Description:
Elements: H1 15-23, H2 58-74, H3 83-91, H4 97-106, H5 108-120, E1 122-124, H6 130-141, E2 149-157, E3 162-169, E4 172-178, H7 181-192, E5 197-202, E6 209-215, H8 219-224, E7 230-231, E8 239-240, E9 247-248
Antiparallel strand pairs: 1-6, 2-3, 3-4, 5-6, 5-7, 8-9
Helix pairs in contact: 2-3, 2-4, 4-5
Amino acid sequence: MPLKFWKKEKPPKGKEEEGEKAGEAPPAKKEAPKPAAKEAAEPKKEAPPPAPAPAVRPEAFEATAQEVHAGLVELGLTIPATREIFAKRAGLYPGGAGAFHKDYGSEPYRAATRVLADWLGLRAPHDFDPEKLLAEANPRLSSFGLSVELGDLSWLDQELGLRKARLRLADSEKVVRFKDPRDFVKGINELIAGRKVAFLELETWSDDFAFLLVRDPKWDRLAETELVVVKAPQTAVGGECGECGAKVGKYWNDCLACGAVFG
C-alpha cells in the first residue's frame, strides 16, 4: 500500500517567534535604583553660654551705689535711711553688681532709673487692669493718709482702647478717660494734687510703665539731672518731638503728647 506523505505546513511568520518567546522565561525586572540615603542632619549648634558678668571689686561697687543713692536723696526721690537697702537692690541688677557698675559708667541715667523703678516703682503693662493698678497704688498713698476709690468703669471705644472711670478721694470725684496707665495715673495726680504728692513717671525704654510716688516733687532739679529720667511736662527740656513738635526730654523713649517712639 503506497505511503502517503503530508506536507507539513509552516506556521505563519511571526507566530513561531512568538511561540519561542512564549516558552522563554520573562526577563527579570530591573529594580529601581534606591534613593541615596539622606545625609544625617547636622547636629544643632548649641547657643554659646552667656557672657559672665563683669567683675567688680566690692569697694568699687559700694562707692557707686552710695553715689547713686546720694543723688536720689538730693532729688527728693528717697531718704538717707534707705542707703543699705538701695545697695542691695543695685546688687540685684540684671547681670549683678558688676553689670550695674559697668552700665552706670557708660549710661548712668539708664542704670539708676532701672534700679529705682524695680525698687520703688508702681509698674503696669500698656494693656493694664485699672482695678489692679489702683490696688497697688493705694498702699503707697496710705503712707500719706490717702486712698482712692474706683467706680463706673466702662468702655467708650474698644477699637481705640478708650475707657472711662470715676475716681473718688474722700469727698472729691473725677471722671477720667484713658487709653493707658499714663492717662489713668494722670487722673489720680489731678485728684491728689492738693495734698502735695504725685506719681512721677519713670522712663522704662519699653512698652511698660513705671511710676514713683513722691512728696512735693523738685521739678527744677528733676529737669536738670542726668541721674534719673522722669517724664513730665516740667522735665521736657531736651528738644522737640519730630512728629508733633511738642517738647520732650533728652533721654525719653517716646513723646507724651503724640506717643511717637524715638529711635
